[in-house]
Design a protein that fits this description.
The complex is a heterodimer of chains A (149) and B (570). Chain A contains 7 helices and no strands. Chain A has 149 residues and is mostly helical. The longest helix of chain A is centred in the last third of the chain and has 32 residues. Chain B is an alpha/beta fold and 570 residues long. Chain B is built from 14 helices and 24 strands. The longest helix of chain B has 22 residues. The chains are: A mainly alpha (149), B alpha/beta (570).
Chain lengths: 149, 570
């Protein structure tokens, strides 16, 4: 039987979905995890955060420019949205879409405001996923935990 | 001449499919790699489009399929797609987080065989082998090595893919490739998969260079484009006319492939896949195609009148319901046709050949006009259309009209389906003017008059054509059109096959040439959307006579833009 720790992990995971942070892409990543890549999900998420930091710097640099280059911003955010979709970061993705809509409307204020939301989601998810992975590691694989040593 | 590393997929296909994934997003790259590996594919990843292109160029046969992101900083995914399509004919799947129709459309128009939306699903990737398989399947049937085969390919794939659909086909045979036919005879198809033309290409057509090329082509216009002109316009030092010519050829191929991809489901003209070569009669006719049309309206008249005939020997045998003619064509010579047949009335007919015009006069049909015109120009300097052995076996649509057969032979009273088989027999290339002694009689003028023919099919079964078929000028205009037209090249088949009314069943029309057509290209393909075009009804029938289905074909309502005559210029 799953330990309390495991149940806690499961609850955390469920909350991430329930609160809209993650979508089914995350499930797909979990399914890809196997003996060859036992930490696949975490690796992917780590890679995402590493790479997205770079993308965000690009966006921030573009947001510094006056007047705003909406074309460039849109392109950057498109890239970012693509990355978000890779880990199933649902909330972030929808903020990205919002951002791009503002780009289309050439709405500077909307862009700036939305970017802050994107950034916030980015950070929130990072923390949540960080906790989740840490907890998962502590709990260990369910099978192992159940097996008598 | 197997030029690839042996691919491991012999038995396990699709396991071992070699996939190149190009995406600037490392996260996606990692995920896709994992997913593809789970599919037992052999994966290579690349985060830069330019690097990917270099890899592809380095060894063209290193990959079976490419999956590329659309948005990449160093090179637009569409550009990559275009380059790949141009240079190596690999299936390319595009992917993007963006599902805007316009973008997807752009990808497809650029030749993407699929367009996946991110997040890409495992099940979608599991299925990508089908694109490879589809392409291979087509390749087996024709050689890829030169335009003609590619174009024939187009025809054939149309045959393959449109079981119910209707497709217009135009075939253009270009004289410049005469030489290759001979070569083709000596190799089997597999060998021909290796590009003979690749050797020549030493110039790397970078994106910029290609862009210059495309600009030049656009500036000149497809109709008038030629290597020399392009070269002059591009003004790139070191570039030779041959380089440009070779690239132009690829570009045309590329465009024709695009067209092929874009139109297979068209529903206007029906090509129904008939049995392919496997079922060939003992004689070696690589090409067999048949078109059968079932007319529901029997009041139409089908006139078969001579036009210009260059056919020399035409033997027509009419066993019972079959009308078989063996014709050999000599360039620019008079047509002497002989009919030998069992039909009682057959005597001397002259000028069978040139299939004059078939017009449908019944106004009721006008809403669904089809044109069938075929011409083979007779000029000496043009190409031989059919060279080598058996080229085409063409069954033309059976026209279900009230056929007028002036031609005596329609002896059989029955209104049932009849088959006309015209065998292009031996065609001697030599200029000997007379080659005649084929049939017993000389055919002068054949027009068919028959009432209530349910189906009429023509079959061309060229057995031996060692020389050139140079003069066939067919100008057949009828509602159901299958056209063989010569615009200004050599041998052009232009089909305006139209989907007729539901009653009319255009059953088969397939040309397969095993690549024996020198250049079979889609030429001026026109999809006519006849439905609702009432204007046809107002046109006098005479108008059709004048139509050669060339560029000035006035009725095209929908024009298929991609490949037109201009692309097949010498």
């Amino acid at each position: 039987m799953a330990s309390p720790l495991h149940r806690q992990v499961a609850n955390m995971r469920k909350a991430l979905f329930d609160q809209g942070f993650l979508d089914e892409q995350f499930v797909q990543l979990e399914e890809l995890q196997d003996d060859v890549n036992p930490n696949f999900v975490e690796e992917v998420v780590t890679l995402f955060y590493k790479d997205s930091a770079r993308t965000m710097l690009n966006i921030e640099a573009a947001l510094e420019q006056r007047p705003l280059d909406f074309g460039k911003l849109d392109a950057c955010m498109h890239t970012f949205k693509g990355s978000c979709s890779s880990i199933g970061a649902r909330r972030m993705k929808s903020e990205c879409s919002q951002f791009r809509e503002f780009c289309g409307e050439r709405n500077s204020e909307g862009c700036l405001k939305t970017y802050q939301l994107v950034k916030k989601e980015h950070e929130t998810l990072r923390k949540k996923l960080g906790n989740y992975f840490q907890m998962s590691r502590q709990a260990g694989p369910i099978e192992t935990a159940c097996r008598p040593k | 001449m197997e030029n690839g590393s042996p691919s491991p997929r012999a038995d396990a296909f699709p396991a071992g499919l070699r996939v190149l994934v190009v995406d600037d997003d490392p996260t996606w790259l990692k995920i896709l790699e994992k997913m593809l590996k789970k599919c037992s594919y052999e994966v290579t990843t690349c985060c830069l489009a330019r690097v990917a292109l270099d890899m592809l160029r380095e060894r063209k046969d290193r990959f079976d399929i490419v999956i590329s992101d659309v948005n990449m900083p160093d090179m637009d995914g569409f550009k990559l797609l275009e380059q790949v399509g141009l240079e190596m004919d690999l299936p390319v799947i595009m992917m993007s987080v963006d599902g805007e129709t316009s973008r997807v459309m752009r990808g497809v128009q650029h030749g993407a065989c699929d367009y996946l939306l991110k997040p890409v699903r495992m099940k979608e990737l599991r299925n990508i082998w089908q694109h490879v398989f589809r392409r291979k399947k087509h390749e087996v049937k024709d050689f890829e090595s030169h335009e003609s085969s590619e174009d024939a390919h187009t025809v054939r794939s149309g045959v393959d893919e449109t079981d119910d659909g209707h497709l217009l086909i135009a075939i253009d045979t270009n004289s410049t490739r005469k030489r290759k036919v001979t070569e083709n005879e000596e190799h089997d198809e597999q060998d021909l998969n290796d590009h003979a033309s690749v050797k020549k290409t030493r110039v790397v057509w970078s994106v910029d260079l290609h862009q210059k090329f495309v600009n030049a082509v656009n500036q000149i216009g497809f109709d008038k484009v030629g290597p020399k002109k392009i070269l002059d316009l591009m003004n790139v030092p070191g570039l030779t006319r041959e380089n440009v010519a070779s690239h132009l050829q690829k570009y045309r191929l590329y465009l024709s492939r695009l067209q092929k991809q874009n139109e297979p489901n068209s529903t206007f003209c029906g090509i129904k896949h008939s049995e392919l070569n496997s079922k060939d009669p003992p004689s070696k006719f690589p090409l067999q195609s048949s078109i059968t049309m079932h007319p529901n309206n029997k009041t139409n008249s089908f006139g078969y009148s001579e036009n210009k005939s260059f056919v020399q020997d035409v033997g027509v045998e009419i066993p019972e319901d079959d009308f078989k003619s063996i014709a050999s064509f000599l360039p620019g010579t008079e047509v002497k046709t002989s009919l030998s047949g069992e039909a009682p009335d057959i005597s001397e007919v002259k000028n069978i050949s040139q299939v004059g015009k078939v017009m449908i006069q019944n106004p009721e049909f006008m809403p669904f006009p089809q044109t069938w015109s075929s011409e083979v120009s007779s000029s000496q300097d043009k190409n031989y259309t059919l060279v080598g052995e058996g080229y085409s076996n063409m069954q033309m649509p059976s026209l279900p009209y009230n056929n007028q057969i002036d031609h005596q032979q329609r002896g059989s009273p029955s209104n049932d389906a009849r088959t006309y088989n015209i065998d292009l027999g031996k065609i001697d290339q030599s200029t000997k003017p007379t080659y005649t002694e084929y049939g017993s009689g000389q055919v002068r003028n054949i027009s068919l008059k028959a009432a209530n023919l349910d189906s009429l099919s023509f079959q061309f079964e060229p057995a031996f054509i060692s020389g050139g078929l140079q003069g066939i000028k067919d100008d057949v205009n009828c509602r159901h059109g299958l056209g063989v037209g010569d615009s200004y090249q050599d041998f052009t088949l232009k089909n305006g096959l139209l989907l007729a009314t539901p009653h009319e069943d255009l059953q088969l029309y397939s040309l397969h040439g095993n690549g024996y057509f020198e250049s079979v290209g889609i030429n001026n393909t026109e999809f006519l959307d006849y439905c609702g075009s009432t204007s046809f009804m107002e046109l006098p029938n005479d108008v059709y006579d004048e139509l050669r289905l060339s560029f000035d074909y006035p009725f095209e309502i929908v024009e298929y833009p991609l490949v037109d005559e201009g692309l097949f210029i010498v």
